[in-house]
From TrEMBL:
Name of protein: DNA-repair protein Xrcc1 N-terminal domain-containing protein
Segments forming domain DNA-repair protein Xrcc1 N-terminal: 1-116
Pfam families registered for this protein in UniProt: XRCC1_N
GO molecular function: damaged DNA binding
Lineage, uppermost ranks: Eukaryota, Metazoa, Chordata, Craniata, Vertebrata
Gene3D superfamilies per the UniProt record, alphabetical: Galactose-binding domain-like (2.60.120.260)
Length: 142
């Protein structure tokens, strides 16, 4: 199945004005990261993205640039507002503590395939995708 485009950003927690969250929408330049605001010391980035259409999610490739953990939750726009997102990928380590402290393996792509990590979403769930990244220093995603 071909990748599904992200149609727009629904919400986000923080962004660096030079590296805005809108960079996630540009597939032509995947090396332009989304960075947290330099003044944001929370160590977490959250984004809610809307996909162009509801599709079964069989795999997700995530570009990482300094985040230690990642969690991906999904939902549908047709769900009532009080219905919680469903965890597709539970909190997953993207960088070891040693790598984080030494600045190694800071930028890489992780591929998550259905059945290996997290739950399958064969019911077409996933019109909305919410990603949460965290680290001690600051987060960057691309």
């Amino acid at each position: 199945m071909a990748p599904v485009k992200i149609s727009h950003v629904v919400s986000f927690s923080s962004q660096d004005p030079r590296y805005p969250v809108q960079n996630l929408l540009n597939p032509d330049n995947p090396r332009r990261p989304w960075l947290s605001c330099p003044q944001d010391k929370s160590g977490q980035l959250k984004v809610e993205l809307q996909l162009e259409r509801a599709v079964p999610i069989g795999y997700i490739d995530v570009g990482n640039c300094g985040c230690a953990f990642l969690q991906i939750d999904v939902g549908r726009s047709s769900w009532p507002p009080d219905r919680a997102f469903v965890t597709l990928l539970p909190a997953t380590i993207l960088m070891s503590l040693t790598d984080s402290k030494q600045g190694k393996n800071h930028s890489r792509v992780r591929m998550f395939k259905d059945g290996k990590e997290g739950k399958s979403r064969k019911d077409g769930g996933g019109l909305y995708e919410k990603q949460s990244c965290s680290t001690k220093e600051g987060c960057e995603c691309y």
